[in-house]
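Quick question about two entries, pasted in order.
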Amino acid sequence: MITRVKNVNGSSRFANPVGYDSWLDYWEDKSGKTAKRCSETDCHLLGRSNLVGAHVQKVNSYDNNWYIVPLCRGCNNRTDEFYVEETLVPVPSNL
């Protein structure tokens, strides 16, 4: 499913969930998938070493929750809205 999102500013201050080495590890565990490429629809960067578990919010939605999705470091720094085609995993509510 393709979803329009934007990055959450300042989310890097949140530590990884307990028991996970990174937000990307958390995404893989909760989605049941292995991150292999950037999820941004127009970015084709491959390789897990280039990816982070990025905090995003859906655009044009009543859903104000935060989600994790694999993005390359460049797309993780974007300030505009963009589309992703990967599972959005909800951020734990206890942050």
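Here is the second entry:
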Amino acid sequence: MIKHQIRRRVGVVMGGSSGEREVSLRSGAAIAEALEARGHEVVRITLGDDLGPELLTTLRRSRIEVAFLALHGRLGEDGCVQGLLELARIPYTGSSVLTSALAMDKLKAKEMFRLHNVPTPPYYTVHASDDRTDLESLHGSFGFPVIVKPRGEGSSLGLTKVTSFEELAPALEKAFEFDDAAIIERFVSGMEVNVGILDGKVLGAIEIAPKNGLYDYEAKYTPGMTEYFMPARLPQARYRGVLNLAERAARALGCSGAVRVDLLVTSGENEYVLEVNTLPGMTQTSLLPKIAASAGIDFGALCETILESARLHQPTRRRAPAASEVRLHERVPQRSKKDLRLVKTAG
């Protein structure tokens, strides 16, 4: 067993009710084994469908010092569990409640990218409650092909490449199985690249080459369906530009801890950010560990570094107001309506 300076009681939180539950369980198992090998006391906390008050009770009774989040998808990666941990005052890995929510919501993330001049493919949204009787008018001159995907789901669940109006309605229905809203995004032909970031430091970029041309759920999790090239096969200057763009995207959302940024790199010298993952997959074969390994960080060291970055993001009141401050506030006279009129006139 490897000696470690600080031995901690760590709760590895995994499972959940999203479509990415199985991936989360694999991430959690790998993380737990790595932390145990480094001398930590690990409590495996597997979540089910119920994330109500019982979860808060479970977290407190576990007597963990810190929570290592291995959750993916809704109700785990979107700020919900992070909020519970803030209430329980248990430090946790990953980004804050707000950042987690923004990154998981593809629409809000894109709005933040545009606000910070981070290029992202053009898009529009459709809600399940919208009148879809005339999709041609709704789609207008947006063109094809497009990518249709749920607004708030990960692992490319519910994602479809659409090449005609006839395919649009079925693709939307597929997306609505996972969310009440869908993103219709212009398809951009280019190299898929993922960039790993750890505590604000860019680790490198890996190229993803799916054999069916689309990096969907099947391509991500079926062995042999995708080739990976580390580092991404790009000219040196462009490689640095991709790393810089990924760093800007993560900064736009306020990310912390371990982050993976998904991008498209076109032959026309353009780069686009697709999304930012605040709790990237952490199995031995996931993309972030591959990128970290290329940077000289093995899986155990990666888990240790992520653990060390765990913290609470909501500030606590440092002190209560002094009695003199309260009394001074209470003595401030209330202005009458006449006084306010005089002030306004004088201004």
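Reply: The radius of gyration is 23 Å. Residues 337-347 have pLDDT under 50 and may be disordered. Hope that helps.
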